[in-house]
Amino acid sequence: MITEEDRFRDHLKKKGLKFTSERKLILKEVFSSHKHFDVEELFGRLRKKDRAISRATIYRTLPLLIESGLIREALRCRDRFYYEHVFGHPHHDHLLCIGCGKVIEFRDERLEKLQNEVCKKYGFELIEHRLGIKGYCKKCQKKISKST
Ligand SMILES: [Zn+2]
Ligand SMILES: [Zn+2]
Ligand SMILES: [Zn+2]
């Protein structure tokens, strides 16, 4: 079985780049949890393990991980990008709470099928899609109704 490390190492090799200890650390941290993450959060986690790591290194490494097909930009909220695993993670879509930042993952076959039908109708070849619904989760809805 190919691991995320094999995949990343191969990609770096193709680009003539080295699998440095920093890149390895970032890869490990990204794949240590299945949750969505953004740069700040990842930076905080990595900082605890390696004081020398910089944001710049993370910003340079994330595009490499995306190119390798390991992660993707999943959502964007308040100018922050959230990433998630693609590798070993089946397709799904997102509900995103703009009140508290909670992310709910879902997959609904009816939606998937409908999107295929739309593409077919327009003679369009589907490669990938990203569906993100923004709104308020149950908890935040309650907060809003209390404050008004
Ligand atoms: Zn979908
Ligand atoms: Zn919420
Ligand atoms: Zn997700």
Task: Give the secondary structure arrangement, pairings included.
Elements: H1 4-14, H2 21-30, H3 39-49, H4 55-67, E1 71-77, E2 80-85, E3 93-97, E4 103-106, H5 109-121, E5 132-135, H6 138-147
Parallel strand pairs: 3-5
Antiparallel strand pairs: 1-2, 3-4
Helix pairs in contact: 2-4
General description of the model:
The structure is a single chain. The protein has helices at residues 4-14, 21-30, 39-49, 55-67, 109-121, 138-147, and strands at 71-77, 80-85, 93-97, 103-106, 132-135. Strand 3 (93-97) and strand 4 (103-106) form a beta hairpin. The strands form 2 sheets. A 3-stranded mixed beta sheet has the order 4-3-5, with no helix packed on it. The chain has 6 helices and 5 strands; from the N terminus they run ααααββββαβα. It is of the alpha+beta class and 148 residues long. Helix 2 (21-30) crosses helix 4. The chain has 2 domains: 1-89, Arc Repressor Mutant, subunit A; 91-148, Ferric-uptake regulator, C-terminal dimerisarion domain (Dna Ligase, domain 1), CATH 3.30.1490. 11% of the residues are buried. It is flat. Helices cover 46% and strands 18% of the residues. The structure holds zinc ion (3 copies). Residues 97, 99-100, 102, 136-137, 139-140 line the site of one zinc ion (ZN).
